[in-house]
Amino acid sequence: MSDQSIDPSAVAESELATRRGMFRAVAFRDPGDGNEHLALVLGPLGDGEDVLVRVHSECVTGDAMGALRCECGDQLDAALDRIVGEGRGVLVYLRGHEGRGIGLLAKVRTLALQDREGLDTVDSATVLGLPVDTRDYGPAARVLRHLEVRSVRLLTNNPDKGRSLEDHGVKVASRVPLLMPARTQNRAYLTAKRDRMGHDLPHLDPPLDGPDPALG
Fold first, then answer.
1. How many Å apart are CA 48 and CA 197, to the nearest integer?
2. Which of 95, 204, 82, 202 is closest to 154 using CA atoms?
């Protein structure tokens, strides 16, 4: 468990009006990685127990540009909808996580390699000499402690994310699936995440959107 905490002078808060309603925006500079991250807080967190939480890794192509080859933008929208539906929760948006930590330039290079050579998301990184996943969830744990969140119901399909938060001292009371419908453009990507990275994606068999034309 990290003993670091966020310096109050490195935190800024304001109300943030969104299409889904009013959130409390908590921007912070993390003492561990030096990046500026954002937590969106909805409603009073009360005793901080069993708070619905999404820890979301930055993905410019998916979150901002609506790319179809990943499910990141879909998950971001769905997580916010779930939190709003519950009336209480936190979304932690971690910057510096682009491409599972390799950065935007390297990520686009892996995408080009996938298109050219037919490699999956894992092999396209390793062929370039890049790590598969270097993401650090310490900043998420630190901001959750700053917000006095004691335990979370974590919106994720990735068991490693829950284990990492636990390692950083955040109690994960349960893991809540965040399954997005598979589509032609991202089925290979999701399958690699399931088969090679251990994500729980039971909805891939059978495909939810009918036969995949790309598979003939």
1. 31
2. 82
| Catalytic residue set | 133, 135
The 3-class SS string of the chain reads CCCCCCCHHHEEEEEEEECCEEEEEEEEECCCCCCEEEEEEECCCCCCCCEEEEEEECCHHHHHCCCCCCCHHHHHHHHHHHHHHHCCEEEEEECCCHHHHCCHHHHHHHHHHHHHHCCCCCHHHHCCCCCCCCCCCHHHHHHHHHCCCCEEEEECCCHHHHHHHHHCCCEEEEEECCCCCCCCCCHHHHHHHHHHHCCCCHHHCCCCCCCCHHHC
Distance, CA of 194 to CA of 43 (rounded, Å): 34
pLDDT digits (tens, 9 = 90+) for 28-75: 999 999 999 999 999 999 999 999 999 999 999 999 999 999 999 999
pTM of the entire structure? 0.91
Whether cis (ω within 30° of 0) applies to the bond prior to 177 is no
Task: Single out the residue of 43, 118, 25, 40 nearest to residue 85, CA to CA.
Answer: 43
Helix axes 159-167, 138-146, angle to 10 degrees: 60
Question: Residue 29 is encoded by which pair of tokens?
Answer: 């500079």
